[in-house]
Design a protein that fits this description.
about 100 residues; mainly beta; Immunoglobulin-like; elongated
């Protein structure tokens, strides 16, 4: 299983995103990790991901995608609410071919 760290830092009104994109083979698993001390929620292509959605499982700071398919292509965003402010970090996932 791969682990992808998404850093959620707010500096000079800009959110830092690291990494910006990752490419995975179809059928792979990946866990996204969001660093932050506030309340964490996740979105996929701007829609809130419910906890334990099909193919997704998350405890606030971690989002695991199992058996990724083309339908998993897109933007995953970690949203941190802290002291009345929202901080965001985003990763793009691209799924290609089949896992051998």
């Amino acid at each position: 299983m791969k682990m992808l760290i998404i850093k959620s830092f707010f500096i000079l009104d800009q959110t830092r995103i690291n990494p910006e994109e990752i490419t995975l083979q179809q059928g792979s698993d990946i866990t996204l990790s969001c660093k932050g001390t506030g309340t964490i929620t996740w979105t996929f292509n701007h829609k809130i991901l419910p906890r334990n959605a099909h193919q997704h499982a998350y405890i606030p700071k971690y989002l695991t995608l199992s058996n990724v398919q083309g339908s998993n292509n897109g933007y995953y965003e970690c949203n941190e609410e802290l002291n009345g402010r929202i901080y965001k970090a985003r990763a793009k996932i691209v799924v290609i071919g089949r896992k051998y």
